[in-house]
UniProtKB/TrEMBL annotation:
Record field: transmembrane: 12-30, 297-318
SMART domains: HTH_ARAC (SM00342)
Species of origin: Paenibacillus glycanilyticus
A Pfam match: HTH_18
Entry protein name: HTH araC/xylS-type domain-containing protein
Length: 770
């Protein structure tokens, strides 16, 4: 089957469409994941920036609280309000104040560098040191862009109310840094003139930036804090020029909390307490790192799924289109069409299959209509003795729909009286109606369900009366009485209701369906006798037998005996011989001459059989011939019967042996054909039956009878045996071996191998290597 066939392409396109749907869903899911990831990253950035802002404001509030505590310190108030007398300094008071304020630097890293300037003493109190000359403090701690005079005038000699000096370069002894300065004059209500004292807290930028380090470490971005006038308070990960460009760019909206600027996501929040602006920049590639991972995983999974789905689609499209293409080929071959014109393959198949179904229904209806005729023909053949074996009768009965509930019964002939010698159309029509009426009455009687009927001429009906098992066990007398009562009732009803006068004749009981013809002949003979004895309406064969001294061995019995022996039915043939002898001994007193003639006839029948081809080729021919010749008519009847039955058994054995040999030879031919063709995946029971030129059911049953194995199991066993040998000696893969031994798919081969061998092919090969 070409892979580019139309059906293959249709299946493949369907599978690809199915693959596209989850791919679209995956893309939508991917876009949603990107948006959610971006939203979560923005929220996390804002949350972290808000947290840093809260911590910074809390620390600045602590710095402001520190100055308020100093304002309430009585020792400091006393010291800064003292009147200086000459050059005397209150050294103890200064030391005491220093000792009291020193612990503050240990609780807040923003208070690690601060000093208190007392204007009356012109002294600077810092942690652990007192500078009685401010110049000495300036030498160690100074602003790089501010002279001593500017420092004094800006910081020491001016009133400050919670004033913050923006970020400035600063020298801390030998260390260069940048600081933010918090200044508060004491007392707190100093608003004009020189204040008695000034508290200055120098906050290193690193302490402020450390609060925002989480954003930089996590995202690798930058942070910027500015006061309400735009002066920089803290700067990390960027420079002043970049911050200035950002604030001056008209594309940047400072009112938005989050927005993309160039390749950064800029988050902006504003403090409600002091108006400070907090900004953080997160690079786009860092922000989308998680989203990129999702994208990578999504595309990898989607790509792998599409690839596997495409391979699966190709395989399924091929596997599903192969049987359709084969069916299509059969249809084209059957209907004589090489191509499809004007419609697609499915329409072609649908049309032809619909036509086949319609034709099949018509045929079925016709067969049902013809079934009565088929049944009637079967009964006529059965009565005429045309069947040679019980199996042939059973098969023909099943085909005709005739059901035999018993192997025993009686055959009767019913004659419609009063029409002898009348052959006009009106008379024939009247006889036809009378036969129908009689049949209907029979069906309505108690034994009607056990009756089979057929016409015998225009004025006669032959019936086969089956006897149930209970009646067989009750004896012959009860059976005769039951049949007699039924026909008496029939004759009475037919005459009373329809004025039809009937005569019934019955043969002796048959004990096998092969004897139906003999019982029928007896019934016909009895009817001839009844024509001369019009006093009786029901006549039995045994009651009408004329007195005779001749032996009983009619021609039809001889022909049936020959046919039975040729069929190899030993039991039926022996029973027929026994019945013939009983007929000649029970009701007859044969003379010696008649006895000799009867034995001679029986021996002649057996000698006729020996002259046939089936026995001419047998090694037992001469022995059997001598055994037949040696049967003596002078022996007692029981011995003669025993000898003849023994010869019949031997003859049937020869036939059975011939049949068995022929069957074995046919099975061997089938085995050879399987051994030659096991690698063909199209090797089926139909192909084997075609090679054997026999029906499929016949060869299936024959193979099972001879080998005790189903033919399908044998084929599987042959394939697995060859596969096992390849696994032991061949370097082919399991898939290649599966194809070589006739399996359409490796999956089917693996299941079959494990079912037969008990292990998987790969495990079997591994065990051989070990």
């Amino acid at each position: 089957m070409p892979k580019h066939s139309t059906i293959f392409r249709k299946f493949l396109i369907s599978y690809l469409i199915i693959l596209v749907i989850p791919s679209i869903a995956g893309y939508v899911s991917y876009r949603t994941s990107i948006e959610v990831t971006q939203s979560v990253s923005i929220e996390n950035g804002i949350t972290q920036l808000e947290r840093s802002k809260e911590i910074l404001e809390r620390r600045m509030a602590e710095v402001e609280g520190f100055t308020r505590q100093l304002a309430l310190n009585p020792d400091l108030n006393a010291l800064m309000n003292e009147k200086i007398k000459g050059d005397q300094d209150n050294v103890y008071g200064i030391w005491n104040v220093m000792r009291q304020v020193m612990p503050f630097s240990q609780t807040n890293d923003f208070l690690q560098n601060y000093f208190i300037y007392l204007s009356n003493y012109d002294v600077i109190l810092s942690q652990g040191s007192a500078y009685f000359r401010p110049e000495h403090y300036y030498d160690n701690f100074r602003y790089n862009d501010m002279s001593l005079a500017e420092w004094k005038s800006t910081v020491l000699d001016r009133n400050h109310g919670s004033e913050i000096m923006p970020l400035r370069p600063f020298t801390n002894k030998t260390k260069q840094t940048s600081v933010v300065t918090y200044m508060q004059s004491l007392p707190l209500d100093s608003f004009s003139g020189n204040s008695p004292a000034t508290v200055v807290v120098i906050i290193d930028e690193e302490n402020i930036s450390s609060l925002l380090s989480g954003l930089e470490e996590r995202y690798g971005g930058w942070t910027h804090i500015s006061d309400s006038q735009g002066n920089t308070i803290s700067l990390r990960g960027t420079d002043e020029n970049a911050a200035a460009r950002l604030s001056g760019d008209t594309r940047f909206d400072p009112a938005k909390v989050s927005q993309f600027y160039n390749d950064d996501l800029v988050i902006t929040i504003r403090s409600d307490k002091n108006g400070w602006v907090y900004q953080a920049g997160i690079p786009r590639h860092v922000l989308m790192e998680n989203a990129n991972q999702i994208r990578t995983i999504t595309w990898l999974v989607t790509g792998a799924a599409l690839l596997l789905g495409l391979l699966a689609g190709l395989l399924l499209a091929y596997r599903n289109s192969v049987p359709i293409n084969r069916l299509l080929g059969v249809m084209k071959e059957h209907f004589g069409k090489e191509g499809i014109t004007g419609r697609n393959e499915f329409d072609f198949l649908q049309g032809n299959i619909s036509r086949m179904i319609t034709s099949n229904r018509q045929l079925e209806n016709e067969l049902n209509r013809q079934l009565p005729l088929v049944r009637d023909g079967f009964l006529k053949r059965l009565i005429a003795g045309e069947f040679q074996s019980g199996e042939e009768i059973a098969a023909a009965a099943a085909q005709a729909g005739a059901h035999f509930q018993s192997q025993q019964g009686f055959v009767s002939v019913l004659r419609i009286n009063g029409y002898s010698g009348m052959d006009s159309v009106e008379i024939l029509n009247e006889l036809t109606a009378a036969r129908l009426i009689v049949k209907q009455i029979l069906l309505e009687l108690e034994l009607g369900s056990n009756l089979l009927m057929t016409d015998l001429g225009s004025d006669r009906i032959v019936t086969i009366c089956q006897v149930n098992q209970e009646e067989q066990e009750s004896g012959n007398t009860t059976e005769r009485k039951s049949i007699t009562d039924m026909f008496e009732k029939l004759i009475e009803l037919a005459y009373r209701d329809y004025k039809i006068h009937l005569t019934a004749s019955l043969g002796e009981q048959y004990h096998s369906l092969l004897e139906v013809s003999h019982s029928s002949e007896q019934a016909k003979q009895t009817m001839e006798y009844a024509e001369y004895d019009i006093k009786q309406s029901i006549v039995w064969f045994r009651d009408a037998q004329p007195e005779t001294a001749t032996y009983y061995y009619p021609l039809d019995i001889e022909q049936r005996l020959i046919s039975t022996i040729r069929a190899g039915d030993k039991e039926e043939a022996g029973r027929m011989v026994q019945a013939v002898i009983e007929k000649n001994t029970d009701n007859r007193q044969l003379s010696i001459e008649m006895k000799q003639q009867l034995v001679g006839e029986l021996k002649g029948t057996l000698l006729k059989l020996l002259d046939q081809k089936a026995f001419l080729e047998s090694e037992l021919q001469f022995a059997l011939k001598n055994q037949i010749v040696n049967v003596q008519a002078s022996n007692p009847v029981a011995i003669i019967q025993e000898e003849i039955i023994e010869i019949v058994d031997a003859l049937c054995g020869v036939i059975s042996s011939k049949k068995s040999h022929a069957h074995i030879q046919m099975v061997e031919e089938m085995k050879q054909f399987i051994a030659q063709s096991y690698g063909d995946p199209e090797l089926t029971l139909y192909r084997i039956a075609e090679h054997a030129e026999r029906p499929e059911k016949y060869i299936s049953q024959l193979f099972k009878e001879v080998t005790a194995t189903n033919i399908s199991d044998y084929l599987e066993m042959v394939r697995i045996e060859h596969a096992s040998e390849m696994l032991r000696t061949n370097a082919c893969t399991v898939d290649e071996i599966a194809e070589r031994v006739g399996y359409n798919s490796a999956h089917s081969f693996r299941r079959a191998f494990k079912r037969v061998m008990g292990v998987a092919p790969s495990s079997y090969r591994q065990s051989i290597k070990i």
